[in-house]
Design goal:
Helix content is about 40%, strand content about 15%. It is α+β, with helices and mostly antiparallel strands. It folds into two domains: about 400 residues, no CATH class; about 140 residues, Topoisomerase I, Chain A, domain 4. The strands form six sheets. The chain has a three-stranded antiparallel β-sheet. Strands 4-9-8 form a three-stranded antiparallel β-sheet, with helices on one face. Strands 7-13-14 form a three-stranded antiparallel β-sheet. Helix 13 runs antiparallel to helix 15. The radius of gyration is 26 Å and the shape is globular.
């Protein structure tokens, strides 16, 4: 079969985009930049594609600006100038050969001529994240002889560098790390280490500008570096742009006509996650004393704060919202660091370049892995809407109310779990962990939409005390209703009760204890005040 000679990603469609009216289509790089103000955003075959491809667009915009960006230049783009489309077009034109998916020497994000000793290639389940290890995942792609269109393959190519699992890879000729024809594990793609945090605006234009964190002219993407060969390039990342396009793998797509039918994936450039907070922008960080001991480091070591699939996004706001550091706290290394992209938005808000009432969609995207990170386990994708005022350094009191209310909601869910345990004990049921966990899940399921709605209402004029009272009231009502359902469903044995630790215990006792716990968790609820006035 004949092979297509070229597929220029600058002018040929391959990115999935959603217009403001909801229509999804494929778009070239330049058309995406030209129409960014009329697009709601990127769409992915999986959510992690959106993360990887958005960072690719950011790398291009940064370099079109020569890596020079200050607050004034940012404000001009935000206030009406938009993206520097002519500069972007000129920049991409200078690097056109590196954006040709099928270029014979320097194919986009690939290594021309990459091969193994025996000339093996793999089926595309090695490239497509929704068919890992032969098990259908995320889609109904059941045919292991699948072929991809060139646009699809290009999207998965970018995704592979960012999120490819670890594990044994094909051994490329010319890579001195290869042993017995195999490339032994070097870790996941760079973004696989991250708990990705991606602020989104009302349009793709707003999203790109919100994420355009200043870098340096020395921070170069892969297409401005020497085209990689099969061997590893040992170096430290020069900045965020470098990480946005980090070549975690060496890849070659095999195409027939206008379809990609196979792929060769080998190890690329190794990278470790310790202390990359100085260059990585899209994740929160946690201090790791384990890593400090392991490395014998006398200074703090920070690791990316990964997402937990079962944890709702708003329960992790403590790690994401920029904190106001006191003089006393400066003497001790912080246990958590918020994402640099949110600290950047905080500076813009504090400088009055971004309105405090600007709504932001805070999206968390990440991938979890199976045994030894060699398989894809789950994709995390959640989002919450808030106003920029919560990132403003001057809004410490309101921000603290939000964090307090997250904690209070968790205490309320725990109180409901305590009621479930109390009812089980009254009925003589030995199991306690199961009822507590199930009740907690019910509480979070009920509180989740309430908290998101409450958070989205907190604008620049929100009063901290009134806001906290409002949340406590709504949460208390919701959890109390769940408690009534648990009590109504309690077995007769629980109503009759029994002796526990020389005390009589029944449904009524469990209910009274729950009432005390819920009041302690949500003390500002209006119904408590109303009952107090009546008495």
């Amino acid at each position: 079969m004949s092979v297509a000679e070229s597929y220029d990603l600058i002018d040929r469609p391959w990115l999935l985009v959603r217009s403001l009216d909801g229509t999804v289509s494929e778009s070239s790089l330049m058309d995406t930049f030209r129409t960014a103000d009329r697009l709601a955003g990127l769409v992915g075959d999986v959510p992690t594609q959106v993360f990887a491809l958005t960072r690719l667009l950011l790398a291009i915009v940064h370099r079109a600006l020569d890596g020079v960006l200050d607050e004034d230049a940012w404000a001009l783009m935000w206030q009406g100038d938009g993206l520097p489309v002519e500069r972007i077009e000129s920049y991409l034109g200078r690097h056109r050969s590196r954006f040709d998916l099928l270029h014979p020497q320097t194919p986009f994000f690939q290594v021309g001529g990459l091969h193994t000793t025996k000339g093996e290639v793999s089926a595309l389940d090695k490239l497509v994240a929704d068919v890992p290890n032969g098990e259908p995942f995320f889609s109904m792609r059941l045919d292991r002889s699948i072929a991809l269109s060139l646009p699809e393959a290009a999207r998965w190519l970018v995704h592979c560098h960012a999120f490819d699992p670890s594990g044994i890879k094909s051994g490329a000729v010319g890579d001195d790390r290869v042993k017995h024809g195999k490339g032994y594990p070097i870790g996941t793609g760079w973004s696989g280490y991250l708990g990705g945090v991606l602020p989104e605006g009302a349009s793709l234009l707003e999203t790109l500008l919100l994420n355009l964190v200043p870098t340096t002219p020395q921070d170069l993407p892969t297409w401005e570096r020497e085209a990689p060969g099969p061997q590893e390039v040992e170096r430290t990342p020069s900045g965020a742009v470098d990480l946005y396009t980090w070549q975690s793998r060496r890849i070659r797509l095999v195409s027939e006509q206008d379809r990609v039918t196979a792929v060769l994936i080998c190890n690329g450039d190794r990278i470790t996650p310790q202390n990359k907070h100085v260059v990585e922008t899209h994740t929160a960080w946690r201090r790791s004393q384990t890593q400090e001991k392991k490395l014998g480091s006398s200074t703090p070591v920070y690791m990316p704060l990964e997402h937990m699939p079962e944890r709702l996004i708003w329960r992790g706001l403590q790690a994401m919202l920029p904190s106001t550091t006191t003089s006393a706290q400066r003497t001790e290394a912080a246990a958590r660091l918020s994402p640099e992209v949110l600290r950047w938005i905080s500076r813009l808000t504090d400088a009055r370049l971004l309105p405090k009432g600007q709504p932001l969609r805070l999206r968390t995207i990440g991938m979890t892995y199976g045994s030894q990170s060699s398989t894809t386990a789950e994709i995390v994708d959640d989002a919450v809407t808030l106003h920029a005022v919560l990132l403003d350094q001057g809004a410490h009191e309101l921000r603290q109310v939000v964090l307090d209310c997250v904690h209070d909601a968790e205490n309320a869910a725990y109180a409901l779990g305590g009621l479930a345990v109390g009812l089980a004990e009254a009925a003589g049921t030995r199991e306690s962990d199961g009822p507590r966990a199930r009740a907690g899940e019910r509480a979070y399921a009920r509180l989740d939409p309430l908290f998101r709605t409450w958070l989205a209402r907190l604008g620049p004029d929100a009063d901290p005390i009134d806001s906290k009272t409002s949340w406590h009231t709504d949460a208390a009502k919701a959890v109390r209703r769940l408690a009534e359902q648990l009590i109504a469903g309690a077995p007769l044995a629980a109503w009759q009760g029994r002796v526990i630790n020389q005390r009589w215990w029944c449904t009524a006792h469990a209910d009274r204890k729950f009432d005390r716990d819920l009041r302690a968790a949500l003390p500002m609820a209006r119904q408590w005040a109303a009952k107090k006035e009546v008495t």
